[in-house]
């Protein structure tokens, strides 16, 4: 009975048992770019030196560095986007709240344009 829910289509995939790749923003892309970075760095080091063990070490280091680098880059951009969305939402709320009142900045602009015409 415990295994019946394991094949649900919406079930998330947890990497290393704690990183929910499907629901955590930037996790999927970070792991993918980290894998690509490890492949490039490990293969490049192996082709340059022909040392297998050292190339594997370089590949693991490349994975960690690439994954963390892209993780911080992506999370920074996500935070900037959320701040912009919050500011826009607040501005739209204020516009609806103040529309037609004496506090409406658009009312002063249109009133001044009408008197000039």
From TrEMBL:
<dbReference type="Pfam" id="PF12597">
    <property type="entry name" value="Cox20"/>
</dbReference>
<comment type="similarity">
    <text>Belongs to the COX20 family.</text>
</comment>
<dbReference type="GO" id="GO:0033617">
    <property type="term" value="P:mitochondrial respiratory chain complex IV assembly"/>
</dbReference>
<feature type="transmembrane region" description="Helical">
    <location>
        <begin position="55"/>
        <end position="73"/>
    </location>
</feature>
<keyword id="KW-0472">Membrane</keyword>
<dbReference type="InterPro" id="IPR022533">
    <property type="entry name" value="Cox20"/>
</dbReference>
<protein>
    <recommendedName>
        <fullName>Cytochrome c oxidase assembly protein COX20, mitochondrial</fullName>
    </recommendedName>
</protein>
<dbReference type="GO" id="GO:0005743">
    <property type="term" value="C:mitochondrial inner membrane"/>
</dbReference>
<keyword id="KW-0812">Transmembrane</keyword>
<keyword id="KW-1133">Transmembrane helix</keyword>
<keyword id="KW-0496">Mitochondrion</keyword>
<keyword id="KW-0999">Mitochondrion inner membrane</keyword>
